[in-house]
């Protein structure tokens, strides 16, 4: 959750609308990178909808399952 000054509006000017859902590809999002990713996860979270309040508060719940790889030393 963060605040975006460019996404503020006056609800009185828009029929009392105080909250909208918008495709996240249309707004700024923080970078989330899994460097050793085993999957291409970018399509899943870019399709999610962000919830934007009239005061500029953005809530973005990306629906993503991250899967990564790592080296394991199993010598005894």
UniProtKB/TrEMBL annotation:
Pfam families named in the record: Neur_chan_LBD
UniProt keyword annotation of 4Fe-4S present: no
Residue ranges of the TM segments: none
Domain Neurotransmitter-gated ion-channel ligand-binding residues, every copy: 1-76
Protein topology in the membrane: Multi-pass membrane protein
Keywords for this protein: Cell membrane, Ion channel, Ion transport, Ligand-gated ion channel, Membrane, Receptor, Synapse, Transmembrane, Transport
Family annotation (Gene3D superfamilies): Neurotransmitter-gated ion-channel ligand-binding domain
One MF annotation (Gene Ontology) recorded for this entry: acetylcholine-gated monoatomic cation-selective channel activity
Subcellular location per the Swiss-Prot or TrEMBL entry: Synaptic cell membrane
Keyword NADP: no
InterPro entries: Neur_chan_lig-bd, Neur_chan_lig-bd_sf, Neur_channel, Nicotinic_acetylcholine_rcpt
A cellular component annotation (GO) from this entry: postsynaptic membrane
Protein name according to UniProt: Neurotransmitter-gated ion-channel ligand-binding domain-containing protein
């Amino acid at each position: 959750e963060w605040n975006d000054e460019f996404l503020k509006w006056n609800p009185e000017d828009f029929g009392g609308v105080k909250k909208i859902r918008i495709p996240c590809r249309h707004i700024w999002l923080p970078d989330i990178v899994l460097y050793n990713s085993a999957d291409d996860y970018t399509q899943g979270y870019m399709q999610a909808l962000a919830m934007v309040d009239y005061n500029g508060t953005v809530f973005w719940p990306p629906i993503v399952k991250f899967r990564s790889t790592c080296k394991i030393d199993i010598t005894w």
